[in-house]
Automatic annotation (TrEMBL):
EC number(s) stated in the UniProt entry for this protein: 3.6.5.4
Assigned keywords, A-Z: Cell membrane, Cytoplasm, GTP-binding, Hydrolase, Membrane, Nucleotide-binding, Receptor
Reported function: Involved in targeting and insertion of nascent membrane proteins into the cytoplasmic membrane. Acts as a receptor for the complex formed by the signal recognition particle (SRP) and the ribosome-nascent chain (RNC). Interaction with SRP-RNC leads to the transfer of the RNC complex to the Sec translocase for insertion into the membrane, the hydrolysis of GTP by both Ffh and FtsY, and the dissociation of the SRP-FtsY complex into the individual components.
Entry coiled-coil feature ranges: none
Compartmental location: Cell membrane; Cytoplasm
Gene3D superfamilies referenced in this protein's UniProt entry, alphabetically: P-loop containing nucleotide triphosphate hydrolases, Signal recognition particle SRP54, nucleotide-binding domain
Region described as Disordered: spans on this chain: 1-33
Protein name per UniProt: Signal recognition particle receptor FtsY
Family of the protein in this entry: Belongs to the GTP-binding SRP family. FtsY subfamily.
Amino acid sequence: MFSFFKRKKADTPAEVVPAPAPAPTPAPVPTPAPAALAPEPVTQGLPEAELFIEETAERPTTEAEKKKSWMARLKAGLSKTSSNLSLLFVGARIDEDLYEELESALLMSDAGMDATQFLLDNLRRKVKEDKLLDAAAVKTALKELMIEMLQPLQKPLELGRHEPLVMMISGVNGAGKTTTIGKLAKHMQRSDQSVLLAAGDTFRAAAREQLMVWGQRNNVTVISQASGDPAAVAYDAVQSGKARGTDVVMVDTAGRLPTQLHLMEELKKIKRVIGKGMDGAPHETLLVIDGNTGQNALAQVKAFDDALQLTGLVITKLDGTAKGGVLAAIARTRPVPVYFIGVGEKLDDLQPFNAEEFVEALLG
């Protein structure tokens, strides 16, 4: 489970990359002192919620310990929905009242009407066909249906398909986009991938500085311009990544609402310019979503997918206040793969999405 990424098979022919143009001069990033592995809090006016917090306690060492630790954090993050759903099956009779209460709990979890009706219709059918008579068996049947619904969203991010693998990352302000980029960069380094970041969020104050802090912490080069066009920054980063032989280039883009059409057009421009810098790029177009935003998250997926043709999602902040059911709504309405889910600010609080684990945490 904790093999964070999927690698392309070694016998696949390497992509032929045309001779690179001279590399642009990146913004210098100072080499971090040894203490950077456990940095002091940054006080540059950056939003506290988006600052990365490295674990200082001893990390679990075995795969079993890691899985147990992750499942505990995931269950805590989904506890709001889990408690509402699980209590329904305690000593319950299999009658119409149970279905009505289950419908209310699913809707309150942000599953949406379509996913809720789909689950209830299939649960009724399964109870009748399998002659289920006790609440525990009905709960198990619901688990199986939810896993089957969410399974199409489970897909690993495959590394090594291109050199560099270019990732364009979008999201509204406050979703945790920049923090997610920093975490992914660290995880990729653990997977022996060299990383280059592009500070393409030129609209938000302190966004460039925030990404530079990430570069310092991870000893990663950040391509930026003091007052540059975001598309130009992205293009420079792709060219630099090609010239350096970098494994992964991640382009941060400005946070915006999908209703801001002129800004959505700017995102389309960035994507087009990245494609001019490298054929077929960006190879991954990700959207970072705040798990607390409920049905609004589904609206964001639709809008950004229509504009950019998303290849993957990252759901953040499943930290106790989130409801979790929105993944069911996404699965039924716009099944874009969910590469990662996050339950907090720490590095290991971001992990690949696994449908079975998610449902187990949700229903217990």
